């Protein structure tokens, strides 16, 4: 441990050049151009990008991947293992596990994307307003945010979902998904509010904002033309990672029996349905779990790539 | 410091009031019948609902209900559940198990997470670093229940190394695998945080000085580097204790552990809100208080931080 070469390493690691890997060219640079230049050299970005395309295709055109009907059940084939006929085997009801896994992508991605969108709108709006107007608006928004942050995620979702759509009730497909999306956004907005708020507070006192104000720009123009574009980077980074974690959260809630439920097809439901048949037929549990994990992995990797590219501190 | 602590404590009061109010409001007031499904397959008779509403004070205005709830909370009176069993007794039975599980999880996070983070941070770009980066990425994308079912299936069902479910006693050896599952996500975060922190501090002047003084590598890392790098990691571990407890809902459900999370899991499935509200309140209190303690600890650990 105490040999001199290791010490050398220690210092060398410390002295690594931190210059930007992007060559400075004569043309007009923007944050987004820089980001793209860095992104397109990263292997992790291309891997996650390809995976994202696959999952999006799966969500949009599930028939490209399977010609089987995910609802078609042959009880005689219940829990039959993987075969040439059905790659992932059959589930408890004798439905094709592969088909159901493919169709599950749509639900997860819709929930993940819409919930993130709602979070960004709610959190971003409140954050920008709180930071821009300050004073009592800031105080109220921050305190309310703290109250929601005080509710641990799973716990808050359990409390809301357990009451709004209890297990016995039978709302429609769209209603079930809408409620889950609203709950995820309701519990997630304070984090985004804080990110947006601190980004705007930092930008608020910059010279260019003061200049715009001096030129007579109104609050709306200031917010949308000057403050928001400059707060977009941190919001975008958080957004990408959030989609992944919301997909995981949706599956967790479905597993608890309070999130999505049939007739919606979802990985979380499939896992919940077959958890107690682990000893006899683990395939019905493991394949949807693998799809779910890969999908979350896609967004986590994408988020990391985007963060590395957008965060100037890491350049 | 003392004044800062008092101010933070006072700031906590409205948050506690607000959060507990949200819980109460959501559980009892949102559309949806808290007594639905309590009478088997048929809808409950009106007389039953009226009686239950009266017993649990639902006929009173929401603020009166909330006031009564606060009074009961402060006097330690948690009432009884829908079956007439004292909630306090159930909490008393479940609490020690969850604390044991959470402490073990924190220990795993600290030992494995910090260890992996230090090893990968010291040799950036090395083999260990790549292994740690990839494995944390995998852990981050596995939802906790997937890890849980996977380990239960491999170790419990296939290899017979562990019992797939935990017995009532929930002894320490039995809880090792559930604690690992509970810790898995935060373990990955801890490793990454430690790595970043180590990499940042490696460039610091004091490390250069220590090396230049001719101190052994071991001493530079253990005494100079680690102490400074671990401050953000410790605060992270502290803040996560609270959310670990609610993460335990999933883990305890999977491994059938009779702790707080298991109690909540069963209460939700049985729609027994008289348990849900006090348990949720307790979890929130633990969460908020642990956050406060961490904030205060920050100043003790890092004297550079001054409280106004």
TrEMBL record, chain A:
<keyword id="KW-0472">Membrane</keyword>
<dbReference type="Pfam" id="PF00528">
    <property type="entry name" value="BPD_transp_1"/>
</dbReference>
<feature type="transmembrane region" description="Helical">
    <location>
        <begin position="174"/>
        <end position="192"/>
    </location>
</feature>
<dbReference type="GO" id="GO:0055085">
    <property type="term" value="P:transmembrane transport"/>
</dbReference>
<dbReference type="GO" id="GO:0005886">
    <property type="term" value="C:plasma membrane"/>
</dbReference>
<keyword id="KW-0813">Transport</keyword>
<comment type="similarity">
    <text>Belongs to the binding-protein-dependent transport system permease family.</text>
</comment>
<protein>
    <submittedName>
        <fullName>Oligopeptide transport system permease protein</fullName>
    </submittedName>
</protein>
<dbReference type="InterPro" id="IPR035906">
    <property type="entry name" value="MetI-like_sf"/>
</dbReference>
<dbReference type="Pfam" id="PF12911">
    <property type="entry name" value="OppC_N"/>
</dbReference>
<keyword id="KW-1003">Cell membrane</keyword>
<feature type="transmembrane region" description="Helical">
    <location>
        <begin position="44"/>
        <end position="65"/>
    </location>
</feature>
<feature type="transmembrane region" description="Helical">
    <location>
        <begin position="227"/>
        <end position="247"/>
    </location>
</feature>
<dbReference type="InterPro" id="IPR025966">
    <property type="entry name" value="OppC_N"/>
</dbReference>
<dbReference type="InterPro" id="IPR050366">
    <property type="entry name" value="BP-dependent_transpt_permease"/>
</dbReference>
<feature type="transmembrane region" description="Helical">
    <location>
        <begin position="284"/>
        <end position="303"/>
    </location>
</feature>
<feature type="transmembrane region" description="Helical">
    <location>
        <begin position="109"/>
        <end position="132"/>
    </location>
</feature>
<feature type="domain" description="ABC transmembrane type-1">
    <location>
        <begin position="105"/>
        <end position="303"/>
    </location>
</feature>
<keyword id="KW-0812">Transmembrane</keyword>
<feature type="region of interest" description="Disordered">
    <location>
        <begin position="1"/>
        <end position="20"/>
    </location>
</feature>
<feature type="transmembrane region" description="Helical">
    <location>
        <begin position="144"/>
        <end position="162"/>
    </location>
</feature>
<keyword id="KW-1133">Transmembrane helix</keyword>
Automatic annotation (TrEMBL), chain B:
<dbReference type="Pfam" id="PF00528">
    <property type="entry name" value="BPD_transp_1"/>
</dbReference>
<dbReference type="InterPro" id="IPR035906">
    <property type="entry name" value="MetI-like_sf"/>
</dbReference>
<dbReference type="InterPro" id="IPR000515">
    <property type="entry name" value="MetI-like"/>
</dbReference>
<feature type="transmembrane region" description="Helical">
    <location>
        <begin position="131"/>
        <end position="155"/>
    </location>
</feature>
<dbReference type="Pfam" id="PF19300">
    <property type="entry name" value="BPD_transp_1_N"/>
</dbReference>
<feature type="transmembrane region" description="Helical">
    <location>
        <begin position="275"/>
        <end position="301"/>
    </location>
</feature>
<protein>
    <submittedName>
        <fullName>Oligopeptide transport system permease protein</fullName>
    </submittedName>
</protein>
<dbReference type="GO" id="GO:0005886">
    <property type="term" value="C:plasma membrane"/>
</dbReference>
<feature type="domain" description="ABC transmembrane type-1">
    <location>
        <begin position="95"/>
        <end position="294"/>
    </location>
</feature>
<keyword id="KW-0472">Membrane</keyword>
<feature type="transmembrane region" description="Helical">
    <location>
        <begin position="9"/>
        <end position="28"/>
    </location>
</feature>
<dbReference type="GO" id="GO:0055085">
    <property type="term" value="P:transmembrane transport"/>
</dbReference>
<dbReference type="InterPro" id="IPR045621">
    <property type="entry name" value="BPD_transp_1_N"/>
</dbReference>
<keyword id="KW-0813">Transport</keyword>
<comment type="similarity">
    <text>Belongs to the binding-protein-dependent transport system permease family.</text>
</comment>
<keyword id="KW-1133">Transmembrane helix</keyword>
<keyword id="KW-1003">Cell membrane</keyword>
<keyword id="KW-0812">Transmembrane</keyword>
<feature type="transmembrane region" description="Helical">
    <location>
        <begin position="233"/>
        <end position="255"/>
    </location>
</feature>
<feature type="transmembrane region" description="Helical">
    <location>
        <begin position="175"/>
        <end position="193"/>
    </location>
</feature>
<feature type="transmembrane region" description="Helical">
    <location>
        <begin position="97"/>
        <end position="119"/>
    </location>
</feature>
């Amino acid at each position: 441990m105490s040999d001199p070469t290791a010490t050398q390493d220690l210092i060398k690691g410390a002295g690594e050049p931190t210059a930007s890997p992007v060559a400075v060219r004569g043309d007009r640079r923007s944050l987004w151009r820089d980001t793209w230049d860095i992104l397109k050299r990263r292997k992790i970005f291309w891997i996650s990008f390809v995976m994202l395309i696959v999952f999006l295709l799966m969500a949009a055109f599930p028939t490209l991947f399977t010609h089987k009907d995910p609802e078609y059940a042959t009880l005689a084939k219940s829990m039959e293992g993987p075969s040439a006929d059905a790659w992932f085997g059959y589930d408890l009801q004798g439905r094709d596990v592969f088909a159901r896994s493919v169709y599950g992508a749509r639900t997860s991605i819709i929930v993940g994307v819409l919930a993130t969108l709602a979070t960004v709108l709610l959190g971003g709006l409140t954050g920008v307003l709180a930071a821009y107007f300050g004073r009592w608006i800031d105080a109220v928004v921050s305190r309310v945010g703290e109250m929601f942050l005080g509710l641990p995620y799973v716990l808050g979702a359990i409390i809301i979902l357990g009451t709004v759509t209890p297990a016995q009730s039978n709302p429609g497909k769209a209603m079930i998904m809408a409620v889950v999306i609203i709950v995820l956004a309701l519990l997630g907005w304070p984090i985004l509010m804080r990110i947006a708020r601190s980004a705007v507070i930092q930008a608020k006192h910059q010279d260019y904002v003061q200049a715009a104000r001096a030129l007579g720009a109104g609050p709306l123009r200031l917010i949308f033309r000057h403050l928001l574009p400059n707060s977009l980077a941190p919001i975008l980074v958080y957004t990408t990672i959030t989609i992944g974690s919301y997909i995981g959260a949706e599956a967790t809630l479905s597993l608890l029996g309070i999130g999505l439920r049939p007739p919606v097809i979802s990985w979380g439901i499939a896992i919940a349905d077959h958890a107690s048949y682990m000893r006899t037929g683990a395939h019905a549990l493991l394949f949807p779990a693998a799809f779910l994990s890969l999908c979350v992995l896609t967004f986590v990797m994408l988020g990391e790539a985007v963060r590395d590219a957008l965060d100037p501190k890491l350049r | 410091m003392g004044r800062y602590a008092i101010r933070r404590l006072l700031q906590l009061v409205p948050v506690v009031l607000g959060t507990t109010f949200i819980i109460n409001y959501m559980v009892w007031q949102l559309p949806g019948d808290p007594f639905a499904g309590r009478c088997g397959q048929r809808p409950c008779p009106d007389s039953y609902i009226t009686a239950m509403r009266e017993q649990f004070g639902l006929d009173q205005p929401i603020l009166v209900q909330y006031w009564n709830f606060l009074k009961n909370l402060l006097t330690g009176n948690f009432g009884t559940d829908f079956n007439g069993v004292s909630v306090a007794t159930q909490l008393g039975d479940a609490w020690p198990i969850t604390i044991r599980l959470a402490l073990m999880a924190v220990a795993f996070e600290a030992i494995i997470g910090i260890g992996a983070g230090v090893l990968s941070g010291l040799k950036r770009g090395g083999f260990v670093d790549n292994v740690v980066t990839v494995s944390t990425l995998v852990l981050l994308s596995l939802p906790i229940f997937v890890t849980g079912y996977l380990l239960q299936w491999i170790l419990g069902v296939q290899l017979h190394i562990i019992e797939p479910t935990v017995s009532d006693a929930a002894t320490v050896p039995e809880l090792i695998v559930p604690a690992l599952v509970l810790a898995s996500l935060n373990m990955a975060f801890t490793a990454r945080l430690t790595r970043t922190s180590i990499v940042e501090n490696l460039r610091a002047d004091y490390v250069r000085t220590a090396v230049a003084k001719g101190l052994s590598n071991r001493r530079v890392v253990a005494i100079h580097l680690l102490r400074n790098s671990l401050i953000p990691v410790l605060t992270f571990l502290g803040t996560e204790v609270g959310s670990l407890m609610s993460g335990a809902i999933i883990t305890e459900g999977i491994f059938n552990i009779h702790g707080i999370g298991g109690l909540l899991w069963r209460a939700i499935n049985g729609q027994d809100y008289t348990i849900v509200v006090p348990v949720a309140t307790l979890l929130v209190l633990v969460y908020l208080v642990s956050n406060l303690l961490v904030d205060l600890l920050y100043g003790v650990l890092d004297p550079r931080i001054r409280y106004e």
